[in-house]
Amino acid sequence: MEITQIIGYLLAVLVGITLGLIGSGGSILSVPILVYVVGVEPILATGYSLFVVGTTALFGGIQKAKQKLVDFKKVILFGIPTILAVYLTRKFIVPSIPEIIFSSEILTISKSMFIMVVFAFVMIFASIRMIKPIKETPNNTNDKTNYLGILVQGLFIGLVAGFVGAGGGFLIIPALLFLAKTPMKMAVGTSLFIVSAQSLIGFMGDIRPDQAMDWKLLITFTLCSIVGVFIGSFLSKKIEGEKLKVGFGWFVLAMGIYIILKETLLK
Question: Which stretches does DSSP call E strand in 8-162?
Fold first, then answer.
């Protein structure tokens, strides 16, 4: 086993810890780890990320369900448009993108470079959402659930998640809070189940006869991440989640800027 793979597996534990602590952010770590540490090709790494995050989020979601912190009605309500969008994106949109999107004497934009740069911008957007505190609105029973807003937001999140291999928890949690009027603790648990369903079904859109996958690497990486989610759930009882989320947000912001520089100026 190569040293880079060992480092990658150790970092995979961090992916699970992040999901266990704050209910999102796993894919934001898993894609860069797979690409820059393990050496997986970027397009394949986004597919691997969906499997890793989906499986890990499922274990985290089951833990939250045991604590009665999952609203399964909202999992279905929010999950259907999100799952549909992420599956169609992985099955049809991503494969249809040409290998060379733009080429000139000065600049060549490949499919892999384009996806990584888009992923970096998603990271920067996610970091801003993490750094900026989410103020939970009072749970007013007279407030009506915004079904149209949930449908539109679900389709958008599925498109983004499918394109860059992200679970989308950083977008799902605010939507559950403000569109579906969900309390914060319940939103985190509900988000994990939505992330799990959309990620695993999105990954199924990647399974094609011409797509070679390293299942040994993928399963080992996922098992390490699952160990991390149990550690994260344990630590969540001892660490204030909001402070950790802000600190992690600054780290994600730095990573997003680094990826943009690496893919454009440092090549």
Answer: 100-103, 108-110
